[in-house]
């Protein structure tokens, strides 16, 4: 479900010195540019529930404690076209209100504007899930969208 929503509406990337990271309600994606021709044997990646570590050709790229917990058994990394490493982490808390403000604790933080855009995107994703007959991919949102937006669960259908 999230993949199709992201394909139509795009992502809100947080730029970093090594690439970028972005998120959906369910997952956090990390994209790392590496020298062209890099082989998988030159990549060492450890993905834990609370931490991540990535070394390429013996050089540390990312190492630290994640902003929130993830499901370590669901984490994957791939080397694409020998020039891009893509890491996918499954969030433990998959609510729209669980918008990571940084990738690692105190590192690779989204600025206030970017954090706002990420939260808006997760809120629209939540609305899309709750209303599958509608297309929210091009929608704009204003007002109460922090913490996943308004709670309509108490309203009668």
UniProtKB/TrEMBL annotation:
Residues 138-157 are annotated as: Disordered. Signal peptide: none annotated. Residues 143-157 have a biased composition (Polar residues). Coiled coil: none annotated. It comes from the Eukaryota. It holds the Pfam family CS. Residues 14-104 form the CS domain. InterPro entries: CS_dom, HSP20-like_chaperone, NudC_fam, p23_NUDCD2. GO terms for biological process: cilium assembly; determination of left/right symmetry; protein folding. One of its GO terms (cellular component) is cytoplasm. Gene3D superfamilies: 2.60.40.790, Single helix bin (1.20.5.740). GO terms for molecular function: unfolded protein binding. This is NudC domain containing 2.
